[in-house]
Amino acid sequence: MEASSEVNSDLARERSRATFDKENLINFLYGGPAAVRKKRYLENIIKQDPVLQRGRRWAFQSREERADTGVWKHLYVDKLQADLGVTDVKEREYLRDAAAAHEGYVLGLHFGMIIPTIKNQASEEQQKKWLPMAESMRMIATYAQTELGHGTFIRGLETTATYDPKTEEFILNTPTLSAIKYWPGGLGKTVNHCVLMAQLFTEGVSRGIHMFMVQVRDLDSHLPLPGIEIGDIGPKFGFEEMDNGYLKIDNVRIPRENMLMKYSKVLKDGTYQQPPSDKLAYGSMVLLRCSITASVAKCLAEACVISIRYSAVRRQTEISPGGEEAQILDYQTQQYHLFPLLATSFAMQFAGNFIDDFYREKYPDIAKGRFDFLPQLHAMSAGLKAFSAWTCSAGVETCRQCCGGHGYSHASGLPKIYVDCTPACTYEGENMVLMLQVARFLMKEYSKLMNGQPLSSVVQFLKCDLTMKSCMAEEVALKCLVLAYQHRVTRLVADAANCIQDIIGEGKSQQEAWNSCTVRLFWAARAFCHAFVVENFVNTVSEKHLDEKTREVLTSLCRLYGVHGIITNLGEFIQDDFFNSEQIQILSHTLTVLLREIRPNAVALVDAYDFPDTVLQSCLGRFDGQVYQALYDYAKSSPLNEKEVLDSYYKYIKPAQMPNKELFSRL
Amino acid sequence: MATTTGVNSDLAKERNNSTFDVEELSNFIYRGPEKVKRRRYLHNLATKDPFFRKFKPWAFQTREEQYEICLQKHLYINKKCKELNLTEPVDKFFYTEAAAPHENSPIGLHTVMFIPTIEKQGTEEQKKRWLPLAESLKMIGTYAQTEMGHGTFIRGLETTATYDPRTREFILNSPTITSMKYWPGNLGKTTNHCLVMAQLYTQGKNCGIHMFMVQIRDLETHMPLAGIEVGDIGPKFGYGTNDNGFLRLSNVRIPRENMLMRYSKVLEDGTYVKPPNAKIAYGSMVLVRAAIVTDAARALAQACVISIRYSAVRRQTEVSPGGEEAQIIDYQTQQYRLFPLLATSYAMYFAGRFMYDFYLKTTAEIEGGNLDSMPQLHAISAGLKAFSSWMCSAGVETCRLCCGGHGYSHASGLPKIYIDVVPGCTYEGENNVMMLQVARFLMKMYGKLQNGEALPTFMQYMSTDLNKKSCMTEEVALNCLVMAYEHRAARMIRDAAASMEKLVQSGKSPVEAWNGSTVMLTWAAIAHCHAFVTKLFVETVVKSRMDSKVQSALTSLCKLYAVHGIVENLGGFIQDQFFDSKQVKILQKKLMQLLAEIRPNAVAFVDAFDYPDEVLQSCLGRYDGQVYQALYDYAKSSPMNEKEVLDSYYKYIKPAQNGKYQQYSKL
C-alpha cells in the first residue's frame, strides 16, 4: 500500500487512445503555446513555493483558520505577483488559482470592484485623493449595496444620505432593521472604508441612489468609528474565508466631497445636479456579470475533470458474470450524466469568452454616452450570467453525485467547488429577475418586429417563419440544430407576447398582464440564452485555428450539447410539430451514438483543461489516478485521528455504559 | 429595532386567508388528532428540555465540537427514551428530530442497524450473548459493508474471512488498499465492534458474502486491537457529527461463533451450510430504503416551510411604479418554483407512508414463508428510494435558491437540510443502479405481458392500448392525469424493450443489448416511479376520509403535482401524439391557474406540517416571521465577532500596508 508515483494503468490507457493531440486543444483554449508555457511556468512557481506549503489542508481547518489562512495566502500571492511583474489579468488568475483555488479573498472586492469604481464614478479630484491610498492599501474598502431587506431591486434600498448645507456634510443612516447593510464581502472585519449605496436626500427631495465613500474603522486601531456598528454575518454554506459583513449606521457625518461625483453632484448649497444619463452607474455591475459566465464555466470544467478521471479509475460491477468489474465510465448512464456536462463546460467557456469580448468592444462607446448597444449588452450579460450559473452549479452537483459516496467527502474537492459556484445564482442579480430582464428585452424586440422596425443583431432570427419545419436529417447538421433552437425561441417569444395580449384583451393592465405571464416569459428567455450558447459553440468549433482532429472532437462535443439539450427539453421543440417523429428518433439515436463517439476522448478532453492538481485539490481527480492511496492518506490525516481515543469517549461514552458485572477487555 | 414578539403582519394575514383549517390537515398528514398530539408532546419534551439548549448553534461549532456535542445529545436521548419509556420507533424519531435536528448520531447505527441485524441474523445463542451487551452500550457497534473500492455491488467486496478448522477461527483480512472498509458511520472513533461484511472462504472455496462480529477496540481502554487500523475518514460536505470511518484488518482472528449464523452456517469442521433462501438477508436494507423515502419527504417539507414563509415575509420590487414592494410569493415565477415542490413534498410523504405499510405487510408474509411479493417489494423500495431522494434533494436546493442570498447563510437552516438529505442519492444503493434494478423488474414484467401471464396489480397499466389518446379536457380530471403518466411509462417500457430487441437482432449479446439501452431503461424506470407516485397521491386524496375543505385544497395540490410533471416533461407525453396541441395548451394554462389557486393556502399548507422552530432552526422559516431581527441576531453572535479586531489584521494586513502616506486616523 505504498504511495505510488505511477499513473494508474486505466488512466494511462485512456490517454493513449485519444484520437487527437490534447496539446493542440490546450493551445486553443489558452491562446497559443507561448501563453500555455507561461501559464505552466506560473503554476510551477506556486507548486514549488515553500511558503504556500504551510498550513493544513483547507478541509481540515476551522472557519476561523480558513479566514486567517485566506488573508495571508492571498496577500502573499499579491506580493509574488508584484515581484514577478505579472500584470496580465489571466496570468494573475493562474497564479492565484494555483495557490488558493476557491478560497475567498477578503481584499478581492477592494482591488476588483472598489478601485475600478473610484476610477469610473469619482471626480478627478477624488481620484487623486483616494486612488493612491487605495492602491497602497492604506484605505481598504468594499462595496456596500445589499441590505437585510433589499437585494436585486436597487431602488428599494433604505439607507439614507441627507445633505446638511450648514455643515456641508451628508448624514448617513440605516433607519430601519431591514436597512442594515448585510452581505457585502470583506465588510465585517477587513475593510476600513466602504462605498455605500444610499438614497440621497437634499433640499428635502429624494434624488435616488448614489454612492458615498464612508470610513468605517479607524486607520490605525482598526476599531469601528462612532455611529458605526459592524461585524461578520456568521457562517455560511461556503465562502468561509470571507467576512461578509453587516453595517448599521447611526447619524454618521461625512464631508460633501465624499459623494462620488463624476456624474451627479450635490453643490455646497445643496443644489442637486443630475447625471447626463442614469445608465452610467451600471458599468461595473455589467462588468462583474460578464465575468461570472467564465468563472462558473471553470467550476464546471474542474468538476468534469475530477468526475471523468475518477470514472475511468473506478470499477464497479462485473459486466458479464464472473468477469472483471467495468470502469464506470463505460456505463451508458454515467456517460449520459457526464458527457453532456463536459460539453456544457466548453459551451459555457466559449459563451464567457464571447460576453467578455462583447463588453470590451462595446463598453468604450457606452462610457462615451452612446447607448445603442447598451440594451443588448445588458440583456446578454444578464441572460448568460443567469443561464450559466444555473446550468453550471447544477452540473457541478451532478458531477459530485456521479462520484458516488466518495463525492460527498471533502477529499473529492467537489463540495468546495459547488459551494463556491452556486452563490452566482443569487448574487449580482438574482437569476430569475435577470431572466425576466432578458424577457423584457425580447418583448421589446418582438414589438419592433411587429412594427416592421429593424431588430438588434443578436435576435435577427426572430424574423424566421414559424410554420417552417426542421431540416434535421440523419447527419444531424449543426446548422439544423441551431435553427431548431432559434425556432423554439421564436415560438416561445410569440407565445409569451400572445399571453400578454390576451390578458390585456380581458381588460387587465399592462403590468398585471406581465405578471400573469412571467413563467412563459421565463421560458422564452431561457430558450433565448440556450439558443445563443448553442450558436456560439457552433461558431467557435467552425473557427479556422483548429487542426482537423481537434475540430472533429470538439464538433462531436458541440453536437452532443445541441442534441442533448433538445432531448431533455423535447416538449418545447415538438409541441408545434417542428420535428416529425422520424426526426425525434434520429435525435435520440444520435445521442447514444455521440456518447460512444466521445467515450475514447473523454479523459483527453478533460486533460486539455490543463488544471494542475494544486488547483483541483481532489483525491479523485488527480492526474496520476492514484485515488485510493490519496483517500487513505486523507483519512489518516483527519484531525479527528490526532488522538487515538477522543476525550469525549472518557467524558461521555464511558459513563453512559451501564456497569457490567464481569469486566472483560476482550469478548 | 428591539426584538418584536408579534407575528409578522404579512404572515398573520396569510394565515387568515386560507380556505381550510390547518389543524384538520395536520390530523390527516399524521394520521389522526391523537397522533398529532403525541407528536407535539414529544417535540415539546425535547424543545423544553434545558439540556439541549446549553449548546452553541450547530453552525458555530467546529467539526470536533459537532461530533462531541452530538454525541452528548444522543447519549442523553438514549437515556431519556429509557426513562420516558419511549419504545416505539416513531416516538423515538419525533423526540430525536426535535432534540438534534439533522445532526446525525455518532451512535445511531448501533441502534438502527447493529442491534436489529443481530436480532434478525443472529442465532438464539448469539442473541443471548450479544444483545444484553449491546443494549447496555458495553458493546457499541456498527455495520461495515462499503469498501474504498466497492459500494453498491456487494458481491464485489474484497474483505476476506477464511475459516481455519484447526483453531476454529476465521481469519479476517483487507488484502488490498481498495478492500479497506471506508464510510461506515460511527466506525472511526465511536464503536468497539462492527459487523463486517466479508467474502467467506472455507475448505478452499468462496462461499460469498457473510457477516462477522468483529471487536475492533478494547472495551476498557478503547484502543484498537492488534491487527486493526481504524480511524475517521475526514471532513465531508455534511455529516460532521458522524465519524464515518475506515478499517484495515490484517490477520485478525475471531472465533467461529462470531459469524452470524441464523441462516447460513460454517460447522466446526469447516462444512458450509447454505441459507434456505438467499433473499432473506436483504430485509433490513429494504427497511432502510423505505425510511429514506420519508426522510427525503421530510427534508423537502421543511425546506418548503422555510422558503414559503420567507417568501410571504420578503418584499421585493414594486409591482407598479411607486407602489409598495410586493411579497415575493406573489410573483408567478416564485410560485412556479415553490408550489410544485410543496406538492412534491406531500406526494413523497404519502409515498413514504405507503412504502412503510407495504414493507410491514410484505415482511410479515415473508416471515410466514410467502416470498411472492419479494420482487415487488424490492422494485418499489429501490425505485421510490431513488426517485424521492433525487427529487427531494434537488427540491431542497431550489427552495434555498428561492430565498435569494439569505438562503446561502447557515442562518437559513437550508444548507444543513441539503447536506443531510443529498447523500440519500448515493448511500444504500446508488440511485442510477437502483433505477436499473427497477428497469430489470419492468423488463421481466414486460416479458410476462408478452407471454400473456398475470401481472401484479400495480403493473397492470402496462397492458393499456398505446394507440389510445388522452381523455384530457378543460376540467383536467385526475383520472386523465393518472392515465397520462401510465401511458408514458408503458410507452417508455415498450421502447426500452424494443431498443434491446433491436440490438439483439443486430447480433449483440443480451448483456451488450442491456448496456446499450440503459439510458432508455432509466427513463422508463423514472417514468414508472413518477406514475406510481402520482397515482398514489391521487388515490390518497380521493379515497381517504378527511374534511371536505382540506380535501378540496389537497386536490388542487395533487393536480398541480401531476400537471407540473407533465408540462416539465412534455416531450415524453407528446412525442407519440398522446396529447393533441389543444390539450397541451389546456395543461399549460391549468398550471398557471393552479398556482393562483394554491397561493392563498400556501402558508397554511406549510404550517400544517407542524414543525416547531426548534426543528427548523431557521431565521427565515420562523413561525412568527421575524426574519430580519433573527438574521441580525445571528450575525451579532457570529464567533468571528468575538474579537473586534482579528489577529490576522495585525499579523498580515498591517504589515502589507506600506507606510508611504502620512499617519492619520481619520481622513
UniProtKB/TrEMBL annotation, chain A:
UniProt-listed InterPro entries: ACOX_C_alpha1 (IPR055060), Acyl-CoA_ox_N (IPR029320), Acyl-CoA_Oxase/DH_mid-dom_sf (IPR046373), Acyl-CoA_oxidase (IPR012258), Acyl-CoA_oxidase_C (IPR002655), AcylCo_DH-like_C (IPR036250), AcylCoA_DH/ox_N_sf (IPR037069), AcylCoA_DH/oxidase_NM_dom_sf (IPR009100)
Record's subcellular location: Peroxisome
Pathway: Lipid metabolism; peroxisomal fatty acid beta-oxidation
Residue span, Acyl-CoA oxidase C-alpha1 domain: 282-443
Main location: other
SUPFAM superfamilies for the chain: Acyl-CoA dehydrogenase C-terminal domain-like, Acyl-CoA dehydrogenase NM domain-like
Family label: Belongs to the acyl-CoA oxidase family.
Gene3D superfamilies noted in UniProt: Acyl-CoA dehydrogenase/oxidase, N-terminal domain, Butyryl-CoA Dehydrogenase, subunit A, domain 2, Butyryl-CoA Dehydrogenase, subunit A, domain 3
GO CC, alphabetical: peroxisome
Binding locations of FAD: T146, G185
A single GO molecular function term of this UniProt record: fatty acid binding
Active site: E428
Alphabetical keyword list: ATP-binding, FAD, Fatty acid metabolism, Flavoprotein, Lipid metabolism, Nucleotide-binding, Oxidoreductase, Peroxisome
Descriptive protein name: Acyl-coenzyme A oxidase
Top-rank lineage group of the source organism: Eukaryota
Sequence ranges assigned to domain Acyl-coenzyme A oxidase N-terminal in this UniProt record: 21-140
An individual GO BP term: fatty acid beta-oxidation using acyl-CoA oxidase
Residue intervals of the Acyl-CoA oxidase C-terminal domain: 478-656
From TrEMBL, chain B:
Top-level taxonomic group: Eukaryota
Binding site for FAD: T146, G185
Short name of any one Pfam family annotated for the protein: Acyl-CoA_ox_N
Annotated Gene Ontology cellular component terms: peroxisome
Needed co-factor(s): FAD
Keyword Nucleotide-binding recorded: yes
Localisation: Peroxisome
Domain (Acyl-CoA oxidase C-alpha1): residue spans on this chain: 282-443
Domain Acyl-CoA oxidase C-terminal: 479-656
Residue numbers annotated as active site: E428 (proton acceptor)
Domain annotation Acyl-coenzyme A oxidase N-terminal: ranges: 21-140
Keywords: ATP-binding, FAD, Fatty acid metabolism, Flavoprotein, Lipid metabolism, Nucleotide-binding, Oxidoreductase, Peroxisome
Main location: other
Pathway(s) per entry: Lipid metabolism; peroxisomal fatty acid beta-oxidation
GO process terms (BP): fatty acid beta-oxidation using acyl-CoA oxidase; lipid homeostasis
Matching Gene3D superfamilies: Acyl-CoA dehydrogenase/oxidase, N-terminal domain (1.10.540.10), Butyryl-CoA Dehydrogenase, subunit A, domain 2 (2.40.110.10), Butyryl-CoA Dehydrogenase, subunit A, domain 3 (1.20.140.10)
ATP-binding among keywords: yes
MF-aspect GO terms: acyl-CoA oxidase activity; ATP binding; FAD binding; fatty acid binding
Family according to the record: Belongs to the acyl-CoA oxidase family.
Protein name: Acyl-coenzyme A oxidase
Lineage: Eukaryota, Metazoa, Spiralia, Lophotrochozoa, Mollusca
